[in-house]
TrEMBL record:
UniProt xrefs under InterPro entries: LpdD_chaperone-like
Domain of life (superkingdom): Bacteria
Name this protein carries in UniProt: Prenylated flavin chaperone LpdD-like domain-containing protein
Biological classification of the source: Bacteria, Bacillati, Bacillota, Bacilli, Lactobacillales
Domain spans labelled Prenylated flavin chaperone LpdD-like: 8-115
Originating organism: Companilactobacillus kimchiensis
Amino acid sequence: MKFSVTAEDYTIEAALKVIGKDLFIALTGGDNPHIGTVTTLTKNTKMQTVRFPSHDGRLHKDDVLATEIGQIIQPFLPGSCTITAGVHVNHISKKQIMISAQMSHDLGQQIKVWLEQTDFSGIEPVYYSNTETPK
C-alpha cells in the first residue's frame, strides 16, 4: 500500500508493509530519499526514535515527519509500528520546510482511514503457558 502527498514542488511517500498485525512504514521523498530516523510505537507505548548522522555529522531530523504520522495513527494500530523516515530536498526553502508538517499530517490521515478500513484479524500466535515448556 502506498500513499503520497505533493506540495511546493516535492513529494513525500509512505510505503506500507503489513507484517502479521504489525506495520512497517517507509517515509521517503524529495531529491535524495534515505533512512535518517527510525521511530517505533504501539497503540499503548510511547514513541521512540533513533536519529542517524547525516553527511556533515549532524543528526537527521526526519523524525518530526514520522512523529506527526505516528501521533495520528497510534490509536488505530493493531500491533507494533516501525517508521523509517528520510526526506531530503536539495536547497530546501523555508516554505517547503513549513509545508512538510501539513504533508505529514495529510499522510497520517490517509493511513488512519486505511487502518480503520483494514481487517487485521487472523490466526493468533500460540504461546506456552507458565506451566508448559518446549518438548
